[in-house]
Amino acid sequence: MQEFSQFVRNAALAAGFDLAGIAAVEDSNFPELARFPEWIASGHAAEMEYLKSRDEHGRLRRAALRNAVPWARSVIVCARSYDTAHPLSTECNHPGRGWISRYAWSSDDYHDSMLARLRQVEARIREAHAAQQPQPNAPLQTRCYVDTGPLVERVYARHAGIGWIGKNTCVINQRQGSFIFLGVILTSLDLEPSLPAADRCGTCTRCIDACPTQAIVAPGELDSRLCIAYLTIEKRGPIPEELRPGIGRHVVGCDICQDVCPWNVKARRDNRAGLPAAARPELVNPALEWLAALDDEGLQRLLRRSPLARAKRKGIRRNLAVAMGNSRDRRFAPALEKLAEDGDPVVAEHARWALARLG
Description:
Elements: H1 2-14, E1 19-24, H2 31-34, H3 36-41, H4 65-68, E2 74-81, E3 99-100, H5 110-132, E4 142-145, H6 153-159, E5 164-165, E6 171-172, E7 180-187, H7 206-210, E8 216-218, E9 221-222, H8 228-234, H9 244-247, E10 250-252, H10 256-259, H11 262-271, H12 288-293, H13 296-303, H14 312-327, H15 333-339, H16 345-358
Parallel strand pairs: 3-10
Antiparallel strand pairs: 1-2, 2-7, 4-7, 5-6, 8-9
Helix pairs in contact: 1-5, 14-16, 15-16
C-alpha cells in the first residue's frame, strides 16, 4: 500500500491542498484522544454539545473513531492555508475598528470549498482502486468531512504528519504555520501511515501569555468558556459580564494566540510572495461604524455563504455592542442607543452595558 498511499498524497496536492498525510485508525495509541473524555468532563467544551455526543452505548463519539465508524481503517488528512498578506490583529490598534478572524475573510464558506476539493481526491482514489481491483472482495468505503466528522481532526492531523498540536491547541506546521483549514477522508483502505509530527513549541509560551482571557489554562489545554473565539462565535445568549472587557474589539473570532506564534511569523516571512490574497477588504479590521450601520438586509448579505453565519445576526450585534463599549469612543453612543432598543433582549442588554462603559 506504500505506492498507493503516495498516490493519495499526490492526488490531494493536485486538488489544491498545501499539505496531505495519512493516519491509521488506532485510537488506543493516541494519548491525545485518551484525554478527550477528561476534557469534556471538566466542562471545558462549554455549550458545544456536538463535541459531547455519545453513541447508543454511552461512549463519546469523537473519543474513538472505531466506535463511530467501524469500517474506517485510515484517515487521510488534507490541509490548506488561509493566510493572507494582510496585517495581523496584533498590528491593528485603531480604536474605531474591530477584528474579524482571518479564517472568515473569504467570499465563500471554507466548508464548501474544502469539501469540493476532498470530493476530487475521493473520486481519484475510487477510480485508482477500481482500476487495481476490478472485482474487489469488499467494496471500498469512503467519507469526507470538514469540521463535521465524529473525530478530533487535529489529533489525526498530528499523526498524519500535518503538524504538531501547539500549546494553544492549534495544529502548527513548521512551513505553513497554523493558519490552515483541515479536511479528512475516512477510508476502509489500510494505507501506509505518515510519520507523526514532532512537537516544536519548546519552552515558548507566547500564546499562553498573550491570551487576554487566560483561556489556555495549561499547555495544550483550552477552556472554551474563556476563549474569545468561542464567546463570539459559538456562545449563545449573554456573555458573562466579567469576560466582556477582555474581548476587546473582537467581533467574530480571535487570532491573538496565532498572531504571536513565532512559527506563524516565520511562515509569513518565508511565504509572503506566495500568500493567497483572497479576502473581502471590508472584513479586514472592519470599521465598527460601518458594521453598526448595517440593517437586517445588509447583515444578511454579509452572512450569506460565509463562515460568519455561524455567529448569527444576533451574535454579531451582541459582539458589536461589546466591541464598541470596549473602544471607549463616545461617537458610538448613538449606535449603541439604537442597539439598546433591539428586539433581542440579549443584544439590548449588551448595548446598555457598553453605554455604561463609555461613561
